[in-house]
Write a structure and sequence with these properties.
This protein has 237 residues and is of the alpha/beta class. The protein has eight helices and seven strands. Helix content is 47%, strand content 17%.
């Protein structure tokens, strides 16, 4: 199943720097190869991704600030590999992605600027609080837009496999995805995201196309259907 090539602006919403590459880096590269404009919005600063729990409070704060700066640089390098130059960093604190008046304003500002036709974000079942928080923030930001946004939502997988209704062959963009993922040295030093992501994408390709190569999996829905699914799954409106 193919993504919509040749559409208007594409927005990728990443709760943390590296989620965009893990979840849909191959599709991002296919879009940029087709000259479709892509913007990546990084919601949080990623400061909690370094296993810093053992440090004293002052040392931990400094280490977190340094990690946030490092992950921004890594995100910039990764995006460059994928061919994306329009990057937005909302800089919410990692682990504290939630709906607030200011957070909604920040994201809505970008949505109004871009008016994307397609939005990629972690799917609702992904097992990280910031990932579900990103969905809540996105849907709240969209709700206040005039005129209303009519984008299609594509939920990607990071921590939790999705029940996919879209499987995209990314073999042509896979080398760029792996190179982009290598830029996240601060994260790959803790967990081997490269190997696990390659395995998942190889499995997706084999199961969908019965062929060698790599694929990414998504749950895609209209914005209104995606919102309804969010309400059904969370009980929140």
């Amino acid at each position: 199943m193919s993504v919509m090539w040749g559409v208007g602006p594409v927005l990728v919403v990443a709760p943390h720097p590296d989620d965009e590459t893990i979840g849909c880096g191959g599709v991002i590269r296919l879009y940029t190869l087709s000259t479709t404009p892509v913007t990546i919005v990084f919601v949080s600063d990623g400061r909690k991704g370094g296993g810093l729990g053992e440090l004293a409070r002052k040392e931990k704060t400094l280490a977190e600030e340094q990690l946030a700066a490092t992950r921004r640089q890594e995100a910039q390098r990764a995006a460059g590999v994928l061919g994306v130059s329009d990057l937005v960093f909302l800089d919410l604190r990692d682990g504290e992605v939630q709906v607030s008046q200011e957070n909604v304003r920040l994201l809505r500002e970008q949505l109004s600027r871009l008016r994307p036709d397609v939005v990629f974000l972690p799917f609702l079942v992904d097992q990280h609080p910031d990932h579900l928080g990103t969905n809540a923030l996105f849907l709240e930001a969209v709700a206040g837009m005039t005129p209303q946004l009519t984008a299609e939502c594509w939920g990607y997988e990071v921590w939790t496999p999705v029940y996919a209704n879209r499987i995209v062959d990314i073999t042509r963009g896979a080398d760029a995805k792996w190179e982009a993922l290598r830029q996240y040295e601060s994260q790959n030093g803790r967990l081997d995201y490269l190997t696990s992501t390659q395995g998942l994408n190889a499995f997706r390709q084999r199961s969908a196309y019965k062929a060698a190569g790599f694929a990414e999996a998504f749950f895609a829905a209209s914005l209104s259907d995606y919102r309804d699914l969010y309400i059904q799954m969370t009980g929140h409106r």
